[in-house]
Amino acid sequence: MSLHTQVSSDFDPFSYDALVVGSGYAGSVVARRLADELNYHVAILEMRPHIAGNAYDEYDEAGVLIHVYGPHIYHTFNERVDAFIRRFSDISDYQHRVLADVYGTLMPVPFNHASLKLAFGEDRGEELFQKLVDTFGRDQKVPNLKLRESEDKDLQEVADYVYKNVFLYYTQKQWGKKPDEIDPAITGRVPIFTGDDDRYFPQAPFQGMPTNGYTALFEAMLDHPAIDVFLNTDARRYISVKDGEVLVENKPYSGEVIYTGPLDELFDCDLGPLPYRSLDMKFETLSMTQFQPVGTVNYTTTEDFTRITEFKNMTGQVLDDVTTIMREYPLEYTRGGATDPYYPILEPENIDLYNQYKARVEGISNFHPAGRLPEYRYYDMDAVVASALELSDSLIAAHS
Ligand code: FAD
Ligand code: UDP
């Protein structure tokens, strides 16, 4: 890779076979595969001063490796994604565990066998666990909203407890809405688990942390002689879409364009901005070796922030008498302000608005929206990699 802090005066977009907007997973995976398999000369235009998108990590002033855009834990069920990622980094055997602070008692989330005993006491907890297992089977994931529909009094008791103590206040902080007012798929990400696996992503066969961090993983992925990365470069300076055609410097462009930024911004938000929730992340370095027992503690009944992450607990970095933690304070996203668009708000009117923007790029054979922003999706990293692998498969097939 050749990495440039900005485009030079002789930058010629027409000298590339493909232009990629954004250097997160979506852009970097496609760039690497086009370079590897089609010998394409690829330019990545990245508006931030660094690569790796929201997965970017760096060492803070205290020497602690932190995740600048929020805690990122790699996990997947997808073998192809895992094999692709491991080409560029070893993955540690870190297994993410999260505890909910319920009025001072720490309980595993997703709520599982151990959590039931902590919440209801040894005997009653065991009884309720058996009821869950008899109803849903062992080692199953049951969305709490589904459990709430049960007619059974015991199951309702569990559902009510989890609703009130795990989901209600946290979700109100995170989304400004109650759990039953948001897309059920969102709270369904954290189901009740009818077993003993106390990991945040129960049963996921591949999980861990890139051993030298995410930025190093991206450096390796982009380390290819045919890939040029230009930082601090807003691609909209060069690329536009008008009347169903991609223009580069206002001229027709026949190469491939992979666009991983927001679709509304490509059109100056002329139909209105797509709404997002954002986060104010407050980092704090403390003079102690360890602050909390696990990577993340969710504050589900108290506090204004949703969760605290302690990075050393996730990365495995060993440093005495110093640690950095981060609190997440949810807030609305305002375009052009200091916040970033983190979570799409998946409500019908927003999805309609998104579809109107999408209609403007559909059918343009050399313009490919890819990733969490242009697809307006709540995507985990592995899902973005899977989708970028598929997109590159189709481009490779079309040009081979
Ligand atoms: P991004 O990483 O956002 O990359 C898009 C890039 O495009 C950015 O670098 C942006 O600067 C650039 N760009 C946009 N517009 C332009 C433009 N006009 N010109 C030039 N560049 C442009 N996933 C997990 O699997 N595990 C986790 O633990 C996890 N934790 C998360 C925690 C938080 C707080 C959040 C918000 C997300 C988390 N995710 C997690 C999801 C993960 O961040 C995303 O799935 C992933 O980063 C998406 O990659 P992407 O390439 O689609 O987008
Ligand atoms: N959630 C909750 N309490 C928790 C954990 C999650 O209410 O202890 C809800 C909340 O609405 C959150 C959603 O479940 O937005 C998804 O949680 P996840 O941890 O997957 O969110 P992310 O890590 O993507 O922010």
Task: Tell me about this structure.
- The protein is of the alpha/beta class and 400 residues long.
- Among the domains are: 2-51 and 222-272 and 345-399, Rossmann fold (3-Layer(aba) Sandwich); 98-198, no CATH class.
- The chain contains twelve helices and 22 strands.
- It has a seven-stranded mixed beta sheet with strand order 8-7-18-19-20-17-21. It has a six-stranded parallel beta sheet with strand order 1-12-3-2-16-22, covered by helices on one side. The protein has a three-stranded antiparallel beta sheet with strand order 13-14-15, with no helix packed on it.
- A hairpin with a 2-residue loop joins strand 7 and strand 8.
- Helix 1 (25-38) packs parallel to helix 12 (381-399) and helix 3 crosses helix 4 (122-136).
- It is globular, with a radius of gyration of 23 Å.
- 42% of the residues are buried.
- The structure holds flavin-adenine dinucleotide and uridine-5'-diphosphate (UDP).
- Residues 100, 109, 166-167, 170-171, 174-175, 186-187, 189-190, 298, 300 line the site of uridine-5'-diphosphate.
Provide key terms for this protein:
400 residues; alpha/beta; Rossmann fold; 12 helices; 22% strand; globular; binds flavin-adenine dinucleotide; binds uridine-5'-diphosphate
Brief summary:
It is built from 12 helices and 22 strands.
